[in-house]
Design brief:
The complex is a heterodimer. By secondary structure, chain A is mainly β. In chain A, about 0% of the residues lie in helices and about 50% in strands. In chain B, strands 2, 4, 5, 9, 10 and 11 form a 6-stranded mixed beta sheet that branches. A 5-stranded antiparallel beta sheet of chain B has the order 1-3-8-7-6, with no helix packed on it. Chain B is about 0% helix and about 60% strand. By secondary structure, chain B is an all-beta fold. Chain B is built from no helices and 11 strands. Chain B is globular and about 40 Å long. Classes of the chains: A mainly beta, B mainly beta.
Chain lengths: ~110, ~110
């Protein structure tokens, strides 16, 4: 399976600031997604990162808060904007190759907002 | 709305025990069910199930899907402390790899 490098691994940020998380894959992938895992919770899909076009956001997530870029088939970024303590979560990049292939995850970014 | 429910919420066993984790789902357009193991941050892929009644096996872990009753089980035999983790069940019910996750089962294996 693809090797997925996500950084930073963790960060502590002050409220009101923004953090950009990077996801780099060692091969071209069809699908890239961003998930959030709040403390003690399961994974929730934030958006699908579409190559060369605007991301597709799930209900409850908006572009102004979570802008996403995907300039090519191996790289994507997620920005968490104007952070508040409620944004403290693990953010996970994931990749898939479409039908009948499993989704694989990067190592995640543990974000703490103070 | 697609729904995935896992049970039990948590489980404590001793090394050598066998455990069975459950996952039930209600989705409108089932494509596949996946199991993941999450030890720290990153879920690692275990199994992908698409057909009923066909057991998937990897070492001491095995899983099976029942599409009629809408559930799956994950079995771990001869548990080891390294099996301690959160086990996540997810269902792909939308095109393009998008998954809906259950709440997870936290397994602790004591020496």
């Amino acid at each position: 399976s693809a090797v997925i490098s996500q950084k930073p691994s963790r960060d502590i940020c002050q409220r009101g600031t923004s953090l950009t998380i990077q996801c780099q894959v060692d091969s071209q992938v069809t699908m890239m997604f961003w998930y959030r895992q709040q403390p003690g919770q399961s994974l929730t899909l934030i958006a699908t990162a579409n190559q060369g076009s605007e991301a597709t956001y799930e209900s409850g997530f908006v572009i102004d808060k979570f802008p996403i870029s995907r300039p090519n088939l191996t790289f994507s970024t997620l920005t968490v904007s104007n952070m508040s303590p409620e944004d403290s979560s693990i953010y996970l990049c994931s990749v898939g190759q479409g039908y009948n292939s499993p989704l694989h995850f990067g190592n995640g970014t543990r974000l703490t907002v103070t | 709305e697609d729904k995935v429910v896992q049970s039990p919420l948590s489980l404590v066993v001793h090394e050598g025990d066998t455990v069975t984790l459950n996952c039930s789902y209600e989705v409108t357009n089932f494509r596949s069910l996946l199991w993941y193991k999450q030890e720290k941050k990153a879920p690692t892929f275990l199994f992908m199930l698409t057909s009923s009644g066909i057991e998937k096996k990897s070492g001491r872990l095995s899983s099976i899907l029942d599409k009629k009753e809408l559930f799956s089980i994950l079995n771990i035999t001869a548990t080891q402390t390294g099996d301690s983790a959160v086990y996540l069940c997810a269902v792909e019910a939308r095109a393009g790899n998008m998954l809906t996750f259950g709440g997870g089962t936290r397994l602790m294996v004591k020496p």
